[in-house]
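Objective 1.3, modelling of assemblies. Example input:
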Amino acid sequence: MEKLILRRVDHNDEEVLLNFGPQHPSTHGVLNFLVQTNGEVLTRAIPDVGYLHRAIEKIGEKVGYPGFMPYTDRVDYVAAMFANEGYAIAVEKLMKLQVPPRAQYLRAISCELNRIASHLIAVGSTAMDLGAFTPFIHGIRERETINDLIEALCGARLTYNYHRIGGVAYDMPSGWRDKVLAFLDHFDTLLVEWDRLITYNEIFIKRLANVAVIPAAMAKSYGLVGPNLRASGVDWDLRRDLPYGAYPDFQFKVPVGKAWYGTLGDCFDRYYVRVLEMAESSKIVRQALEKIPDGEFMAPKVPRKMKPEAAETFSRVESARGEMAYYVVSDGTENPYRVRIRTGSFTAMGIIEALSPGLMLADLVALISSFDVVAPEIDR
Amino acid sequence: MMTTQDIHSKMQAQFGEAVGPLSEPKLDAFATVGASRLVEICRWLRDTPGIELDHCDDLTAVDRPQQNVIEVVYHLFSYPHRHGVVLKVMLDRAAPALPSVEEVWKAANFMEREVYDLFGVQFSGHPDLRRILLPDDWVGHPLRKDYQEAGGYHGVPNVRENPLVELRRLDVKRRAETAAQNPPAPPPTPTEAPKA
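Predicted structure (tokens):
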């Protein structure tokens, strides 16, 4: 069989055609790039995705509304809380359910802890892909603590399945709040240490600054979302600008790219926005733990078999990889008629071909890791 | 910030019959637009001051065999104005085709490829319309409601026996073997009555 992707390449003798991936340590999962290089400079890199396609949207049409929740974990297993939350919000809109305030707070706490864990992987693996292994281990160590905390909350360490349609699955266990606060006290000092460990490292800066610059207009046109969009200078965060759940109650800043060491929208901005976001998430968790109201953590009388009336809705949440949206269409039966998941990684892959001409091959690695793409989220 | 109704009435004023009526808003209302003027409408929505839908949030499709249509759904949003609109294009299921909006929002490139891959919708003017999630030689478009699995892909089956059945078979076999190796002990002989 002729691969259609090869029709796009018209290479001469000077150029080399390489397969980058699908099993390459710095592709963040099973990702393939068809790379055309002239010496060490890329002529173009064509992403070839789909190796992890598991037909999650099709499964959504085959199982009932509550039964789809565990599958959403698998959409983005590095930040599964957000996938849970987005789906729960969409179905709650269809079912016209009111989520109790305590559940909203528990959702915010679990999501922000998950955001810290996910960003630790993101910034750690950025450093690892560029050859600095130690920061990744530091990040993983802190993430272990968060995994322990979330395990105490919901029993799972990776695919949480914690949010429910109408609330969350469990309340906080006793003593959990103090454990989280103790971790955050430790974590805030770690972020200072993190900057000294890797952010100000001169080689690291040289590998990221001025590499693969994305202007704001280009970022918008290609549909970049979340930290990737903010790094290009677009001041936009769904938690602040279209708040959902408990987010109107919290005070936090939205870090935006400032061309710290190079040009606005380069790889370093994308990296450092995430570091700053972790500090803001820590603030949000503290405020939420302080203000969390008493009461139920699940809406009363949530039916086991849901039959929302025929309608369609679109819910957007600010995931660790940017906007995650669920488009759920109901036809009045027990199963959704259509579930569509819009993820940040998928659109981030779309921009790589446009950015690749003129990059060095080693910069492609920096570019991919600065987007913080997660392969299952691309392919779903 | 404008409501969906405002944007829709402006669209109707500008494009007349190409823009259908707004749907009954059960939750999210949508406007139906004609495929022929789609690109023009999208570019107008992106560039008109006050509307400026600069973010193609989502582009997907819904298959409705009963009505014999495939709906292509555009969720558009504006960062500066924080408003949005949902557009739908109704296509014939037999030969769904419409112009690509890739030149308006580059994000549509991958999303249209996905819709082509999973629904079989042809986007004319798309620069690189290939399958994206499935292999190039895949047969059929799986998110269509009447999709039939082809019964495997290059020798990889898509059905398998329930693993519990296989385990049960192994279990029965092992018990039979054990029984063959260790014949059951003879029934206990009647012992003498205990002496008093």
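DSSP finds 15 helices and eight strands in chain A.
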